[in-house]
Design a protein that fits this description.
Number of helices: 18
Strand order of the largest sheet: 1-2-3
Catalytic activity: oxaloacetate + acetyl-CoA + H2O = citrate + CoA + H(+)
Protein name: Citrate synthase
Oligomer: single chain
Pathway: Carbohydrate metabolism; tricarboxylic acid cycle; isocitrate from oxaloacetate: step 1/2
Number of strands: 6
GO molecular function, one term: citrate synthase activity
Bound molecules: acetyl coenzyme *A
InterPro entries: Citrate_synth-like_lrg_a-sub (IPR016142), Citrate_synth-like_sm_a-sub (IPR016143), Citrate_synthase (IPR002020), Citrate_synthase_AS (IPR019810), Citrate_synthase_bac-typ (IPR024176), Citrate_synthase_sf (IPR036969)
Strand content: under 5%
């Protein structure tokens, strides 16, 4: 392990500010963000090396298990993931919901609930139905539609939700929990792709045996086998977004897991937190903003007006990085390369680089405002023809690796999260009956 004591933000200064700025939530060996130097490490490995030499599957193994796998371990991990991408039952269930109207992130969150083993849900006839969606067994299980006694089903449901044994509090992470993590890491890409397909009126697809997780996500979304370049570009994207310190969605997952709720709930909470425009939702907003600006020549007047109105510029700034986000260092040039081939994309990319110049010139050294991970990723996704409002689901496809790794790490020494609030209200107010107010 590398000695971190020569890094500028070491030893850790713990001064807590609004938004828990500076607070230390837990110890971790999973990832390290050096905000001053703009460096990112997973398990001690530099993100630039992982993007150059690794794959999303290998990086996920590294995050989960703490070391790089042997070839044999990697091959069998890839097999497990591919098998768990096969979720026809969850796909069928998902199609019964109005996902066209729900929005992609809400649908994705719903999908993680539908993935639960032994699901119980209620249909429009107010009857309870039970289904079994152990992903690898899905091919052999026909959807069960036998109505059940509602009280019994509700009880079973509660038992399942509350099923974590007391032993979990004694630092045990069960094989079942690790299995659930594998299912989520493989299932979320399939759900995300299904959402994209179903919205366009297509039938969901099954994964192909000869594609990587990144390749299968693209194939299941578009119905077309990706080129090698597209598969690699998506793979690098997934590596880049896989983990990032104690960000809001990771923290949300940990808070839920710390109550000894289950991993599906924890990951669903991560998805919910990621969806906001201050977090992962920013990648959608950036592309909309670049389109609104309407070209590099219009950047100066747009930026002047936006700053005059006191607006924050989406895709810039970060709680931790006060220097250039290393992920944007990879995504920016990647977007540039892809834009070379595509006239329409070039307009978007040129607008982005012009905006970057102006923001850095005015806020870079003064406030440490630089592009973050979300500034260029949308242009990369646009090059593959992915609809704009699906971009945040791609972030989740990747980040589920980090969420699950950190949840497992935290559960091994679990203590419920329970911070305090500083009370600034009044006390002992006289209660006035309603007719006298
Ligand atoms: N544009 C202009 N100024 C900014 C920006 C921005 N995007 N971000 C921060 N600032 C300024 C603030 O106005 C503030 O200035 P002040 O000291 O004069 O008041 C200063 O920088 C500190 O900003 P905070 O809002 O306190 O920073 P915080 O750490 O709370 O927020 C956040 C971080 C949410 C990322 C913020 O920078 C932001 O809103 N950025 C735009 C949304 C975005 O791109 N989100 C994606 C982040 S990456 C991710 O989550 C995957």
């Amino acid at each position: 392990e590398r000695d971190l004591t020569d890094n500028v933000d070491w030893p850790v200064q713990c001064t807590v500010g609004p938004g828990l700025e500076g607070a230390i939530a837990c110890e971790t060996k999973i990832g390290y963000v050096n905000g001053a130097q703009g460096m990112l490490y997973y398990r001690g490995y530099n993100i630039f090396d992982l993007c150059a030499y690794s794959s999303f599957e290998e990086t996920t193994y590294l995050l989960l298990h703490g070391r790089l796998p042997s070839q044999k371990e990697l091959d069998s991990f890839k097999d497990v993931l591919r098998k768990n991408m096969f979720i026809p039952k969850t796909q069928r269930l998902l199609m019964t919901f109005p996902i066209e109207d729900m929005g992609p992130m809400a649908s994705l969150r719903l999908g993680t609930n539908l993935m639960r083993q032994k699901q119980t849900y209620r249909d429009s006839d107010e009857q309870y139905y039970s289904t079994d969606s152990i992903a690898s067994d899905e091919d052999s299980i026909a959807m069960e539609t036998k109505p059940r006694g509602s009280e019994e089903s509700r009880f079973e449901f509660m038992k399942r939700v509350m099923k974590r044994p007391a032993s979990a509090a004694k630092n045990l992470v069960s094989a079942e929990e690790i299995e659930s993590c594998y299912k989520l890491i493989a299932g979320v890409p399939s759900i995300a792709a299904t959402i994209g397909r179903v919205r366009e009126g297509h039938i969901p697809l099954e994964p192909l045996p000869d594609l990587s997780l990144a390749g299968n996500y693209l194939y299941m979304l578009t119905g077309r086998k990706p080129t090698r370049l597209e598969e690699r570009v998506m793979d690098i994207n997934l590596i880049l977004h896989a983990d990032h310190g104690m960000n809001a969605s990771t923290f949300a997952s940990l808070v839920v897991a710390s109550t000894l709720s289950d991993i599906y709930f924890a990951i669903g909470s991560g998805i919910a937190a990621l969806s906001g425009p201050l977090h992962g939702g920013a990648n959608v907003e950036v592309v909309k903003m670049l389109e609104t600006i309407g070209g590099p020549k219009k950047v100066a007047s747009w930026y002047k007006k936006a700053r005059g109105e006191g607006k924050k510029i989406t895709g810039f700034g970060h709680r931790v990085y006060k220097s250039y986000d290393p992920r944007a260092r990879i995504l920016g040039p990647m977007a540039g390369l892809l834009a070379e081939e595509n006239e329409q994309l070039r307009g978007l990319f040129d607008t982005a680089t012009e905006l970057e110049k102006q923001v850095i010139a005015s806020l870079g050294s003064e406030k440490g405002i630089y592009p973050n991970v979300d500034f260029y990723s949308g242009i990369v996704y646009r090059s593959m023809g992915i609809p704009t409002d699906l971009y945040t689901t791609i972030f989740a496809v990747s980040r589920v690796a980090g969420w699950t790794s950190r949840v497992l790490e935290y559960l091994a020494h679990n203590r419920i999260f329970r911070p305090r609030a500083f009370y600034t209200g009044t006390l002992e107010e006289p209660y006035i009956p309603i007719d006298q107010r």
